[in-house]
Amino acid sequence: MVNFKITILGSSGAVPAYGRYPSAQLVEIQNEHFLVDCGEGAQLQLARFNGNIHRINHIFISHLHGDHYLGLMGLLFTMHLHHREKDLHIYSQHGLHEIMTAQLRYSRSVPNFNIRLHTLSPDSREIIFDNKWLTVETIPLYHKLPCTGFLFREKQKPRRIDKDRLPEGLPHYRMHELKAGFDIKDETGKIVYKNEDLTLPPNQSRSYAYCSDTAYAESIVEQITKVDILYHEATFTEDDKMKAAETLHSTAREAALIARKANAGKLLLGHFSARYRELEPLLTEARTVFTETYLATEGQTFTLPE
Amino acid sequence: MVNFKITILGSSGAVPAYGRYPSAQLVEIQNEHFLVDCGEGAQLQLARFNGNIHRINHIFISHLHGDHYLGLMGLLFTMHLHHREKDLHIYSQHGLHEIMTAQLRYSRSVPNFNIRLHTLSPDSREIIFDNKWLTVETIPLYHKLPCTGFLFREKQKPRRIDKDRLPEGLPHYRMHELKAGFDIKDETGKIVYKNEDLTLPPNQSRSYAYCSDTAYAESIVEQITKVDILYHEATFTEDDKMKAAETLHSTAREAALIARKANAGKLLLGHFSARYRELEPLLTEARTVFTETYLATEGQTFTLPE
Predict the structure, then answer these.
(1) Predicted pLDDT of residue A1
(2) Cβ contacts (< 8 Å) between A144 and chain B: which residues?
(3) Is residue A213 annotated as part of the catalytic site, yes or no?
(4) Contact A187, A162 (CB under 8 A)
(5) Is the ipTM of this complex over 0.95?
(6) CATH number for the domain including B235?
């Protein structure tokens, strides 16, 4: 089975509390390991939950509030001290270059590896990662600072060979044609086997959307429609709706409304305010609107089957 | 009893490992709570070990390697979000101003409280804190970056009234004279009671020296002579002596040699390299030179009686 797995490293809002760490998630899709946000302690949580920092080549930072990036420098120093050589790509809003440069300069550190810093445009969707199987695009969010979420989406997959119906002796190279959706033809161009008789439909392309931090924003619904897993911040409950409005955060119910409107498969809640010791009230609130809701707490993993 | 207590928040060297956190200690002396170094996760560890961030008014940063200061911004943001109003004094080598300013600017944060940043001189001893009861002075260390340790020292204390020998009816204001060491005289200047007959010697002035990071440096011995507790980094064992020399760190044995030469009361070892899962070998190595050695691991507290 090809990997599609999200590991929660931190579930806390701006002020860490009750053992909850600031925002960070490890997203493993196929052979790529992505770090999504990198709050303080992310490297400690990666170690704790068996994440492999050497496999991370891309780090996506949603915005420059401290609880979303303050673990970055520590992680970079550790990569350096572990003799990393591979390029590391970091995607962030404007400003991170200056923040990093100052810290590298005063620690007199020159990393062994190249840091490729990509500055995001907060107001438009951009494809920021694209390989044979997968794209990652930004999701413009609505927060106090320029901020984007990230949508991970597998590309259309090949059709699957139906081994039971495969005629004997068909040469190997024909398989590629079948997977790509072509019929099998002879030299004259005549169809010998119709594709649909020898193949099954492709596995579904899986998707994950990370949306933190944001006020309730229906503008994102169209982009994330039918996403398999939606992580949406839920800093507050409806009882603290005013506080949510004031700080441009969402309530659990609002997160659930977005999930319902987007027809998402599953909703993960996170970025919990320090005012809540217990998180069940947030879960209950969201489930009244969207049943398939879960708490995205430290060490939890969420996977999608192929 | 008047407080003199050190709580270890982090014992790790540059690369955190085995659940050990980067350098940070909470030092409580009398009514003052000091934070000494502030590695990544310091605010999480403070919460875990019941440190009260609102009581911290002075933060001493030994040097600008990430493992000694990367928890600072997170702590400042949390203080801000908790509506701190009191001034906060931060003492650091040159560079922290630029690092902090960039991060405050891009997060569009203006703290509610004043941050008083004091730049340390790495090459000379300075008294950087001085109140009625206590001084803190810097200890020039020998490391890859400008770096100082910190010596906390109670001032000479008053003589203690010996209640058993105190004559009845002596007015209250005379007590101050006795505590200050004066004899009791009558109007003509004649000694009525000798001070030594009514008082006991002062309680001892307690002291704590924090020395991290540093290569073996006998130059510090004179300054820390007879310190009650010496924390000295012990990144490596003697087996890795070459590595210690190369990185300007100390071995456990070297830390113990310094403690012995300084005639310290107690030695605490910390700043352990990620290469050691078990720390007993470092302790054993140091104890062959200096018996009163302890491991300064997370959550440990060390107190000095009055």
Answers:
(1) 57
(2) 108
(3) no
(4) no
(5) no
(6) 3.60.15.10
In the predicted model, what is the mean pLDDT of residues B77-91?
Answer: 97
Inspect the interface and report whether the beta carbons of B64 and A17 lie closer than 8 Å: no
For the stretch B88-131, pLDDT in tens is 999 999 999 999 999 999 999 899 999 999 999 999 999 999 99
CA angle B261, B265, B267 (to 5 degrees): 75
Count of domains forming chain B: 2
Same domain, A49 and A169: no
The answer on B150 and B22 residing in a single domain is yes
Q: Does A117 touch chain B (CB under 8 A)?
A: no
User: Is A99 part of the contact surface with chain B (CB cutoff 8 Å)?
Assistant: yes
A225 and A250 fall within a common domain: yes
Tally the residues of chain A. Answer: 306
Put simply, the answer to whether A44 touches B43 (Cβ < 8 Å) is no
Which of A146, A102, A125 lies closest to B69 in space, CA to CA?
A102
CA dist B227 and B293 (Å) reads 14
Q: Do B16 and A47 touch (CB under 8 A)?
A: yes
The pTM of the full predicted model, rounded to 2 decimals, is: 0.94
Reading phi first (left if > 0) and then psi (alpha if -120 to 50, else beta), residue B224 is in alpha
Give the range of the structural domain holding residue B235, as residue numbers without chain letter: 4-157+203-303
In angstroms, the Cα distances linking A255 to A290, A300, B200, B250 are 9, 19, 69, 52
Where would I find the H helices in A213-299?
221-224, 241-247, 252-261, 280-287
Q: Is A265 touching B (CB cutoff 8 A)?
A: no
Fill in the amino acid letter for B276. Y
Peptide bond into A162 cis (omega under 30): no
Contact present, A254 and A216 (Cβ < 8 Å): yes
A99 and A191 part of one domain: no
Alpha-carbon radius of gyration of chain B: 22
Q: Report CB contact under 8 Å: B74, A106.
A: no
